[in-house]
Amino acid sequence: MDWFGVRSVYRNQGSEELADAYDERIVLFQAEDFAGALVQAEAEAFEYAGLLGYEVLSCFQAYCLPEEPATGAEVFSLIRRSRLEPEAYVDHFFDTGEELQGQAE
Fold first, then answer.
1. pTM of the prediction?
2. Within a 13 Å sphere around the CA of 90, how many CA atoms are in the beta-carbon half?
3. Burial class of 54 by CB neighbour count within 10 A (0 to 12, 13 to 18, 19+)
4. Which string of DSSP letters, residue by residue, matches 30-51?
5. Residue ranges of E strands in the chain
6. Percent residues over pLDDT 70 in the chain
7. Are the beta carbons of 47 and 8 closer than 8 angstroms?
8. Are 44 and 74 in contact (CB under 8 A)?
9. Beta pairing, strands 54-64 & 74-81
């Protein structure tokens, strides 16, 4: 099995302090392939979002790590303020058409 870092994006829907904020994370998963990593990531994302009152956006990006990390470690997190709506936010920052990425089946 390989290790994958999966990036996910969330929109704040609870805290007034974080109004118009989006949260981006990369969390590690061990899986047979990209599809398996993405299935795990989606389940974890909804658990995380439920704890914080976030909306899970339909943006999951996976990367196969070349070395073995510690399981469950978050390797990236960024919170950005934006007045863009969810689809426009993902299109603007992550899905511009210029990314070199494949699609999981």
1. 0.74
2. 14
3. buried
4. EESSHHHHHHHHHHHHHHHHHH
5. 2-12, 21-31, 54-64, 74-81
6. 99
7. no
8. no
9. unpaired
pLDDT for 37 = 97
- Give whole-number Cα distances, 56 to 3, 9, 41, 63, 69, in Å: 23, 6, 11, 19, 25
DSSP 105: -
- Write the burial class of residue 45 (CB in 10 Å: 0-12 exposed, 13-18 middle, 19+ buried): buried
Residue 91 has φ and ψ, to the nearest 5°, of -60, -40
The residue behind tokens 């999966």 is 6
Cβ neighbours for 22, distance < 8 A, ≥ 6 positions apart: 9, 10, 11, 12, 57, 79, 80, 81, 82, 89
pLDDT of res. 100: 61
**DSSP for residue 69:** -
Task: Report pLDDT digits (tens) over 7-56.
Answer: 999 998 877 777 778 889 999 999 999 999 999 999 999 999 999 889 99
